Amino acid sequence: MQIHIAPEDQHKTTFTCPFGTFAYTHMPFGLCNALSTFQRCMTSFYRRFIKNFSKLALPLSKLLQKDVDFDFDRPYIEAFQKLKDRLTSAPILQAPNWDLPFELMCDASNSALGVVLGQRARVG
């Protein structure tokens, strides 16, 4: 997943090398706050696949509030485990069946490219 940098902010990512001066059009991971931005993006993407995501994630969200001690004890561990279980259980994610063929599904536009490696499960 690529996160676009607004055209008016691209100059802030300018760097020079022997081949010229360049600026990023998509967020690289070396930028300040890039990891937290990417995490918010991924959270927003996966929340639509998990019923009651906001309720499940509420304890973890509270840990991120200002002036809150980060004590990752039982309620937070349970919330984390529930979210992890939901993300890694069918139909979200499952181990591949090496006896079935794989499918490569691609999507592209002028500004992005997406690819998913998947399998169609046999029913019955």
From TrEMBL:
Q: Which residues form the Reverse transcriptase/retrotransposon-derived protein RNase H-like domain?
A: 77-121
What is the source species? Answer: Mucuna pruriens
This protein is called what? Answer: Retrovirus-related Pol polyprotein
Q: What single Pfam family name could you report for this chain, choosing any that match?
A: RT_RNaseH_2
Q: Which InterPro entries match?
A: DNA/RNA_pol_sf (IPR043502), Rev_trsase/Diguanyl_cyclase (IPR043128), RT_RNaseH_2 (IPR041577), Viral_Replic_Matur_Polypro (IPR051320)
Q: Please give the SUPFAM superfamilies that the UniProt record associates with this protein.
A: DNA/RNA polymerases
